[in-house]
């Protein structure tokens, strides 16, 4: 029953009742019909979205063994062999990586190893340099004060591939492993060498003097150099790659809601082709200044665009991917708002954002295989594209753009279908209203004729 009719029937006095007043029973019922289902839907959404995101970041420590790591033994002697035996020891403590022994000739030069890490063939590569064992022994024997312990081992990794994974899981595991193994090896090696200086019960004064000249050959003896091939040197990228994508979704949601409200007065009077045109063209045009503005704001805060391309090309390519992201998500909202109506579209928007962002929070290797679906979702691909443009990480730009275009085209198809269904419903409703109006007019005319006939009969 319409609220206005209820007011007219009950004659409710304004500003004079409590919520549970009997006079407000019908109005209270109408109120609860809106509030209670909304609360129930929010609870269901929480049980759907929160476990989805919580599960994405729940147990990365248990999955570090999925992070591929290369061990390249160019030394081929005591240091390289002993380190590999320790690394390959299943009884080792601490987080473990997925270590593989790579033949030095297959691995190639330092440049080849670096390129392999950048090309995501491995998360990290640990190289025991050629002649490392011999260099240490010679430095001890000659008292070489220029000996550099960090020249024995080189570690290659690309931080910008995923700064959370490398900073919180990968490099702590590598550092712990190297500290344990190199300290143990250097201690054993030093003990063996010092034992030789006391051979036959006599102190070798010359050997001790040479060690005094090069104490670093005893402690630490061997160490390592870290080569960060793609440093995450733009903190602003954290906002752009993760939180910024949520903002883009919110902007497209606001646009979809405003566009839905603006269409109401006019869409009933438009041909199907016209309403379809404005539903497709208006959002796609609106996303152009939005994507450029998003990129300009990022530029104003010094987000670098020249890592892979020149700054101008990087800027426009970044804006193109922001536009594709907005088109992929925004057109999906444009399509679903027809099916779900503005009343329920926020629930769909919330689920879509969580389902997308859950796959971006950590790389695939540190998530359950369930989250591999993210490779086909918009935010995952935009994140990879932005990393490539800003940090020159491994490029999958063509694939990323193709997936985003696929989402946009799919949304265009569903938008056409849902708009057609909505127009059919509107036309059927209009036909019913017209039929009811004709019946009502006919009944009114008959009643008027009856009244006129009765008036004629009453005349003398």
From TrEMBL:
Residues 39-412 form the DUF3533 domain. The chain crosses the membrane at residues 34-54, 276-301, 313-333, 345-363, 401-420. GO terms for cellular component: membrane. Keywords: Membrane, Transmembrane, Transmembrane helix. The keyword Metal-binding does not apply. It comes from Serpula lacrymans var. lacrymans (strain S7.3) (Dry rot fungus). The keyword Oxidoreductase does not apply. This is DUF3533 domain-containing protein. It comes from the Eukaryota.
